[in-house]
Amino acid sequence: MKITLFHLQNSRSQRILWLLEEIGCDYDVINASDIDKHKQNLPTDIMPLKFPTIHIQYECDSFYMTETSAICEFLSRKFQILYLATPNDVDLANFCFWKNYADANLMQLLVLRQVFKQIVVTTPLLFKPVPFLFKVLFNKIYLNKAFDQQLKYIDSHLKDNMWMCGNTFTIADILMWFPLDAALSSINTVQHPFIEKYLNQIQVRKKFSQAMLKGNWSKEQFRKYWSK
């Protein structure tokens, strides 16, 4: 089996690159800047290309996959790694919840905040005060409270758990890392000490560091993009 990851720097595809490093399998990476060189070999039904996309090739067959959560679950099951082999009910419930929560809940708030931010940035200067005021009010009335509620919930969970699923590192942690790091880009981490501890223990993982290098990760650019 040959695995090819289509990767965009500082995007959610970094999680797939990290997962592939944790698995320890062979894989190829095609960066977004090189996509034009490969367009003639890509099927039209996957264009425009989403990041991440993986291409799985066998001797007589091949297919493409998108959606980070789906890719993580497929690779985890395929290689029998980073999942719960014989979980108790609590750990299994946490696994099912957090691996879906990352993109279905927390990531949606981040995207919403980014949409309003980009509207302000791209609006002509003369009209900029209108979307800016709307963004400020929306953040104050809804978004900031929603972030605060969710981060407090996650911090409370991590107070009693080393990883999202108790003491076992799984794909749920790989999926949760990106939105948590993004969410804390403009928030005082002192308010969420257990999330900060959790992110620190992720960053010292050898495979995580290797994936950051291979993905050309820029923490400075990432934090700047996801800040308020």
TrEMBL record:
One Pfam family here: GST_N
InterPro entries associated with the record: Glutathione-S-Trfase_C_sf, Glutathione_S-Trfase, Glutathione_S-Trfase_N, GST_C, Thioredoxin-like_sf
Sequence ranges assigned to domain GST N-terminal in this UniProt record: 1-83
Family: Belongs to the GST superfamily.
Name under which the protein is recorded: GST N-terminal domain-containing protein
Native source organism of the sequence: Acinetobacter rudis CIP 110305
